[in-house]
């Protein structure tokens, strides 16, 4: 047992509700890329409960090894070693064939240029009808869905000017530009959403 596993309370809180949706969405065997694996808690939980999937963790090169304590302790045969993926520099060619993509709480941390690069990269690697599931808080027509999201957005922007909760209209446009159409917008606990894009 690793004594010093990194821990995210948000991951612990949201892994159950997200799994319920992913079990329906990713119901065929194949490899799912996780962008922004972070601590690895999601990777372990989803790989454990979705044994038909091979889970491919990835994160920014600075964070790519953060998930190793969780992944090594779980020792699941259907989790690949984590990959360093810089969405802008486009090291997307290092990936195995990908059937679906999942990312949680990344769009508001990334700079907008990185969000654009993520959509572009995802569209390149997904097969026709492949799904891209993006979890987090989002704005609609420039409006926050709750006071807590508004406070969170302010705190993000105070930490770093490039961060902030993204607007759905901009994301939808970004999807369309890259041949990804928004199929589902699920309400999730704690004022979050799960957005599901399908590659045309």
How do you describe this structure in short?
This protein has six helices and seven strands; from the N terminus they run αβαβαββαβααββ. It has 200 residues and is of the alpha/beta class.
How does this model look, in words?
By secondary structure, the chain is of the alpha/beta class. It has six helices and seven strands. A seven-stranded mixed β-sheet has the order 3-2-1-4-5-7-6, sandwiched between helices. The longest helix has 17 residues, at 9-25. It is globular and about 45 Å long. The model has no long low-confidence stretch (mean pLDDT 96).
Question: Could you outline the blueprint of secondary structure elements for this entry?
Answer:
Layout: H1 9-25, E1 30-35, H2 41-49, E2 53-59, H3 68-74, E3 83-84, E4 100-104, H4 112-125, E5 131-136, H5 147-159, H6 168-177, E6 180-188, E7 192-199
Parallel strand pairs: 1-2, 1-4, 2-3, 4-5
Antiparallel strand pairs: 5-7, 6-7
Helix pairs in contact: 1-2
Which properties best describe this structure?
6 helices; Rossmann fold; alpha/beta
**CATH architecture name:** 3-Layer(aba) Sandwich
Provide the CATH top-level class. Answer: Alpha Beta
| Helix fraction bin | 25-40%
Radius of gyration: 16 Å
Mean pLDDT: 96
List the helices and strands in order. HEHEHEEHEHHEE
The separation of the N and C termini measures: 44 Å
The overall strand count is 7
Largest sheet: 7 strands, mixed
Structural class: alpha/beta
Figure out the total of helices. 6
Q: Compute the number of structural domains.
A: 1
Shape: globular
Pfam family, one: DUF938
Protein name: Methylase
Organism: Marinobacter gudaonensis
